[in-house]
Amino acid sequence: MILSLGLWWTGGGMSSSSGVQRFEITERETPVFGGAQLGAIGAYERLHGTVHGVLDPEHPRNIGITYLDKAPRNASGLVEYQSEFRILKPIERRRGNGWLIYDVPNRGNQLIMPRLNGAPEGGHPQHAGNGFLMRHGFTVVWSGWQGDVPPGNDRLTARFPTVPDITGIVREEFIAETTGLLGDNNIEEVSDGRFIGTLVYPVADAADATLTVREREADPRTTPAGLAWRLIDDHHIEITRPTAQGFDRGAIYEFIYRGRDPMVMGIGFAAIRDLVSYLRHEADGNPLAHGIRHTLGFGISQSGRVLRDLTGLGFNQDLKGRHVFDGILPVVAGSRRTCINWPFAQAGRYSRQHEDHSYGDDQFPFSYPNLSDPISGRMGGILDRARAQGVCPKVLHLDTESDVWQARASLVATDTSGNDIIMPDEVRIYTVTGVPHAPFRPLTKPAMQLPGNQLGYGAFMRALLLALTEWVEHGTPPPDSRFPSRTAGTLVPLHEARERFPKLPRVNFPTRLNELRLRDHSVEPPVESVSYPVFVQPTDADGNALGGLRHPLLDAPLATFAGWSLRSDGFAEGELFTVQGSMIPFAATEAERQRNGDPRLSLEARYPSREAWARQLALATERLVAERLLLQEDADRLIAAAHETWDVYRVL
After folding, report:
1. Minimal CB count within 10 Å: which of 10, 41, 428, 550?
2. Half-sphere exposure of 32 (CA within 13 A, CB side)
3. What radius of gyration, in Å, describes the C-alpha atoms of the chain?
4. Per-residue pLDDT tens for 158-183?
5. What share of the chain is helix, strand, coil (3-state, %, to 5)?
6. What is the SS3 assignment for 632?
7. What pLDDT does residue 15 have?
8. Burial class (CB in 10 A: 0-12, 13-18, 19+), 393
9. 131: nearest Cα among 113, 158, 108, 153
């Protein structure tokens, strides 16, 4: 039953230590999941509403928020904001496990249910999927933190103030390829020769605005014949493609203009901090009062980068000096951070080799220990502030092979001279080898040279999440880090990886990765200088990468599973295609293998039968279960599927 409640609690402004001024529950759905009884925990309910928050710009823990001191204030001198929230909790709270998981929304979307529970995509929890989180008794919380997320499609939004009368240079990038994944949400095709781009910030002055185009990211910015633009209004630009040859559907259009009215996007960090603190500690009006012992921050991709920045910028300490998160699980963040606490922030941007390459989410520090960087002349680490504040969380950091290529994940494990580094006691790092960043939407698009890689990492997230809670609550050490390294020879320069990759028919190996240079963002486009050392994983004779936490299907392989995908002819051919991976199946028979000139053994030569393959797969899963990197229920699911079919790519 869904009830519209309109319940709220007023915390009294400045007297509210959490920064939550009013906590308004507008909807309660009891029970959810059709009333399913989820193990010993029983049924769950869903709460939805709005957090009305206030921030004191003079408070020491708020001072670092860009433009907060310039934002409009209320009569009490405080800056106000609003954020939608959602809570999934056991109806009988005493049955819960005492853990609050805060799932950082990704562009307003709630990912933990489809990713960990296998529930359908779409945010709003229609059913429990495999019930993993609920069977273990977790309370799950989401809230809007990104102020420019549009409403709709069950996204959680936030309303943050903008600062009038401030202008600044804004750089927008458009790739009008209509592949359904990249920039299609900020472009609209008008005709074959024109498209409309949506600008993040309104135009203050277009007199000095510039538009350039380049075929590949490293190409010079040009203004070829036929390239033109016009403003439709202060938020939209119409771009006419060049008539000159050499600019296809993968070309990068870059518009630089003077924008106005920047949003105080950094409030998002404080909004997360204050909501989690309120739900953990406050009593009045709190639906979770006295029921939360520990908190865990969970985030995938953009959301994992948010957790790294939240910790690095000092927001893991609440306004009373207490921990916000006892542990964090940033997933597929790589060495990147975010463009959130910036003037004219663009929170949705993230650097890849071809797309959004030179935005400001990826400069030093890259990793968790305190390191010296001779390239930038800086010193630091992601955990420095939290350690100084006495609120250092336990960290399990999980990447995939795609993140080695596109998110420079090697910089999590190596210093800026290219040497292995030792993680702090509070940190373990893992790379799931053979798996792409985005396996949950495997694509085979015109822009891709090869079919998409469907291997997933959900099962590894489940195992690590439980390991993190046991580490925090009982002191049980988690599994040792499983990350490729320079010492082991599993992180190598790109040219060495190219030399070791097998010569496969009609398969090209990348000639580039998402390299990184020191950048000066005081001008746009930024000025790049010295290169950082970035490494990738070498491969075995099958073309499957070595090192890290290997997916079981790399120890009982049916194909080459790569973390990279190359752009095809007509779409900036040869550049890396966003965060997708590739799959290159083995030949079924030796005759087929020889006919194709494929150096990899065929399935016929590898496995006498499907049952023999399933036994080899079982041995691989048994090792992972023994190492606490895979849960027995996930191993059982994979093996059961293997006895039924060869097609088990998406089981994990």
Report:
1. 10
2. 22
3. 25
4. 999 999 999 999 999 999 886 544 44
5. 20, 25, 50
6. helix
7. 41
8. buried
9. 113
Q: Which of helix, strand or coil describes residue 382?
A: coil
Give SS3 for 404.
helix
Q: Which stretch of DSSP H or E encloses residue 133?
A: helix 132-135
The DSSP string of 333-366 is -TT---S-SSTT--TT----SSSSTTSSS-PSP-
Spatial neighbors of 477 by CB under 8 A, at least 6 apart, are: 471
pLDDT in tens, 115-137: 999 988 764 556 899 999 999 99
Write the CB contacts of 640 (distance below 8 Å, at least 6 apart in sequence).
none
Cβ atoms within 10 Å of 49's Cβ, excluding its own? 23
Residue 45, Cα to own-chain centre: how many angstroms? 27
What is the end-to-end Cα distance of the chain in Å, rounded? 33
Q: Taking a C-beta distance cutoff of 8 angstroms, is the pair 327, 471 a contact?
A: yes
Is residue 572 a contact partner of residue 355, using CB atoms and an 8 Å limit? no
21-37 pLDDT, tens digit each: 999 999 999 999 999 99
| One-letter amino acid of 58 | E
Taking a C-beta distance cutoff of 8 angstroms, is the pair 565, 450 a contact?
Answer: yes
Q: Tell the residue number behind the tokens 């073309």, with chain if given.
A: 543
The structural domains of the chain, with segments of one domain joined by +, span: 1-115+133-161+279-290, 167-260, 293-520+532-604
> Mean pLDDT in the chain?
94
Q: Using CA atoms, how far apart are residues 463 and 475, in angstroms rounded to an integer?
A: 16
